[in-house]
Amino acid sequence: MNRTVLGVALLAAAFLVGCGGGDPAAETAMAGEAPQSAVAPSTYWAGVNRALPVSPHGNTIAVSCHNCYGDTVAETNAEVAIALARGFDLVEMDLTLHSNGQVYVEHNDSELAHGTLAATLANASLQASDRMLFLEVKEAYSTAALSDTMMLAVLRAVRDGGYAAAGRPVFLRAFMDGRHNHLVRAKAILAGSEFAGIRSQVRFHTLIQSDIRNNIRATKTLGLHGVELEYRMANLYGALMQARLLGLGVGVYTAPASMGELYLSAMREDMDFITTDYDRGASAAASSARALIQEATALAYVNTAQQTGYPVNYKRTNTTDHTVASSGTTPAFEQLAVGSDEDRVGGSMVFAGAQSLTTYDADNAAAGGFLVTAVVNFDDLTSGATAAIVAKSDSGGFALEQAGTLLRFGVQVNGAYTYATAPLSGFDGTSSYFIVGAYDGNGAVRLWVNNVEKTASASISGGVTANNSPVVIGADPQGATDRRYFFKGKVQQVMVQKWRDH
């Protein structure tokens, strides 16, 4: 069966009010507006000395070693050694305050004698490295006085250990559940003369689990620097793009060790940092987190959140911008204000059932497959029509599509299409979904929705069949110009990579 659509087309960051079910004609961006880059480069890591990993499309993203500590200073030193050896950029430690007035490195306030923060930061290898600290305050917030005791000790340990030096920021982090008040207290303490030498090298992040959009705005209002979101949350990209458009650093926690290579690769273009358990085991993974982010697997990428109109820019294998001009068959733009709190903010492509956006003929490696992502809002979940979200499925290639009662991702291998599936009954027309499909050349075809895996196929083996059709967003290609199986809905982000067994 033939398919179509490779995602890559528009970033739209205009702040006009709209809604997920609005009239596309009323929300079309004006043709002829000067486009922005298909990847709006983040400046979050400007001035940092460490050479951070950079994706093929030019996004700089730091990787944090999740819970990089043990029950004793010696155990923590061993965990830190792994992080240093495997190229992690950020070393995450959790902090509590004990009744003896000392700050300890531990997940929960046990009042047991785990290693103190001061002793932990005396690690000579860590001090001599260029790695940054991700310090999460786990202590519940009770009073300003107790918070000041803890945060004063934390800031002194950081300073006295030689951290938060020029070009090597330290990050203080806390959940936006009351514990963020520790960050407010630390920010005030940092303004004092005692900490003038490190003040410019301390940043503050909130970890947000509830009342997402209000807490993103509150983070900005408090003068903090970044937000961290749970990687499986609903409407993830709406929240990420809202925070980014507000000028905040953005990232997710905690990508797991299992299939960690997929999560890192699938999210590498759209965030500033990722906390992960990947490659934390006794034996090093075949591909480090840094290698996955930098691996030259890119085929196409577009994120319409920060573009304003045609010509639409997208990227292929590197940082060069390619454009798609407006025509009678290209999708309209929907532009949602940054404060609208819709499932998406900024720009999206609106497909009304007769539009498509064509990129180019992007093929997988001979023995490998594809990794495909898309951020999608559905307008038709009940007709049962076949509708391609992004595809290159003309007697070969891949398709991410609706078919009957299913969302499915399929590839053609050995003359037949094989699919991973999810029931459309689990979707609605008001949310946006981060969808990932993958096949690596040997194993199951897999599908994730909001980073939760759905029903995989049986195992197959062999490279995806190549064809001469382009990757198309919003329809199924039939050769260079013919299209069918048109999609109805909004698409904000599409990425296609060559994918292999990692």
Key attributes of the depicted protein:
single chain, 502 residues, alpha/beta, Jelly Rolls, TIM Barrel, 2 domains, eight-stranded parallel beta barrel, eight-stranded antiparallel beta sheet, 29 strands, 30% strand, elongated
Report on the structure:
This protein has 502 residues and is of the alpha/beta class. It has two domains: 24-41 and 300-499, Jelly Rolls; 63-295, Alpha-Beta Barrel (TIM Barrel), CATH 3.20.20.190. 17% of the residues lie in helices and 30% in strands. The protein has nine helices and 29 strands. The chain has helices spanning 73-85, 117-120, 124-128, 144-160, 181-190, 212-221, 236-245, 260-267, 289-294, and strands at 62-65, 90-97, 103-105, 132-137, 170-175, 202-208, 226-230, 249-255, 273-276, 298-303, 312-315, 321-324, 332-336, 346-352, 357-358, 369-378, 387-391, 398-403, 406-413, 416-423, 433-439, 442-443, 446-449, 452-453, 460-461, 472-473, 476-478, 482-484, 488-499. Strands 1-2-4-5-6-7-8-9 form an eight-stranded parallel barrel, surrounded by four helices. Helix 4 crosses helix 5. The longest helix is centred in the N-terminal third of the chain and has 17 residues, at 144-160. The protein is elongated.
Q: Helical segment tally?
A: 9
Q: How many distinct folded domains?
A: 2
User: How many extended strands?
Assistant: 29
Q: Which shape, going by the Cα principal axes?
A: elongated
Task: Please estimate the helix content.
Answer: 10-25%
CATH superfamily of the largest domain: Phosphatidylinositol (PI) phosphodiesterase
> Any low-confidence stretches, pLDDT <50, length ≥5?
1-39
Mean pLDDT: 92
Structural class: alpha/beta
- Strand content is 25-35%
User: CATH topology of the largest domain, anyone?
Assistant: TIM Barrel
CATH class of the largest domain: Alpha Beta
What is the CA–CA distance across the termini? 28 Å
Largest sheet: 8 strands, parallel, barrel
Spatial order of strands in the largest sheet: 1-2-4-5-6-7-8-9
Q: Which architecture of the largest domain per CATH?
A: Alpha-Beta Barrel
Q: Report the C-alpha radius of gyration, rounded.
A: 23 Å
